[in-house]
Design a protein that fits this description.
Layout (H helix, E strand, L loop, with lengths): L4 H11 L4 H45 L3 H9 L55 H15 L1 H8 L15 H15 L10 E8 L6 E3 L5 H4 L2 E5 L2 E2 L6 E4 L2 E4 L8 E8 L1
Antiparallel strand pairs: 1-7, 2-6, 3-4, 3-7, 5-6
Length: 265
């Protein structure tokens, strides 16, 4: 069974003895990453749409440009018929003249005096810092024309050079909303119990859809992953869980395998 990146982090946390509180926090972090991935996809989609619009405008401009060959033809008129060939004229070549004598070489002039070294120029005045309020609209106006080059350049920035969240429209509000999701999922859980991984596996018989598991999953029944024939299946749409009873919303065929694992205390 191939685990996603998020599932691998959950398993590693359980193997290191993570608590239920840490598991809930990890779920919240995964939710934030999913939301950021969706936001990145929206940015790429909008960039692609702008590039397509630019291509359409270029084609429209090119289509509206006049045909220069036709314009020149209308100005100079059509070409007339070719005239008759004239008679060949006589060629008169005079005799070659004699070569004159070579002139004498004049004397070499004296060397000039060496000039003085030039003086060092003055240092230029320090430039003033650019006004972000004036520069930002200029950059935003040209972002659609740069497309992927701007995105790749921003990904290379490190530390304080990285783009501020306020420069991305709607990002600050989205981060506040995700922070509210994290705050709403924080629960104080005492006892310091150690998490454990419990595996399960059932053979399909063509009729059974209800299966009993040995332990109740942690995180209020959320810490469980189910696979059918090695493919991860989704909760609610393909299976449900009530206590220790796992119910599939389809009938596993004969010879198939329904398996998975859960995290419990």
């Amino acid at each position: 069974m191939a685990l996603t990146k998020q599932q691998e982090r959950t398993v590693k946390l359980a193997m290191k003895g993570g608590t239920d509180k840490e598991l809930l926090l990890l779920d919240s972090i995964d939710a934030i990453e999913n939301e950021l991935n969706k936001l990145d996809e929206k940015v790429e989609e909008k960039t692609g749409e702008l590039e397509n619009k630019i291509d359409i405008v270029k084609r429209e401009i090119k289509a509206e440009m006049p045909n220069l060959d036709k314009v020149l033809e209308s100005v100079r008129g059509t070409q007339g018929p070719q005239g008759e060939r004239g008679e060949k004229g006589d060629t008169i070549i005079g005799q070659e003249g004699k070569r004159g004598p070579q002139g004498l070489v004049g004397p070499r002039g004296p060397n000039g005096e060496e000039g003085e070294p030039g003086k060092d120029g003055k240092d230029g005045a320090d430039g003033k810092d650019a006004d972000p309020a004036a520069v930002l609209p200029f950059v935003e106006e040209r972002l659609p024309m740069l497309g992927e080059k701007v995105r790749d350049a921003l990904e290379l920035l490190q530390g304080d050079e990285r783009l501020d969240a306020s420069a991305v429209k709607g990002l600050t509000d989205e981060l506040k909303r995700l922070g509210g999701i994290i705050a709403s999922t924080r629960t104080i859980i005492g006892g310091g119990k150690q998490l454990r991984i419990t595996e399960f596996s059932f053979d399909g018989d063509g009729s059974t859809t209800t299966f009993g598991i040995s332990k109740e999953p942690a995180a209020k029944g959320r810490a469980i992953w189910v696979y059918y024939q090695g493919q991860h299946i989704q909760r609610v749409s393909q299976w449900t869980l009530a206590g220790k009873t796992l119910t599939t919303l389809f009938t596993p065929d004969v010879g198939t395998v329904l398996d998975g694992f859960l995290i419990n205390f």
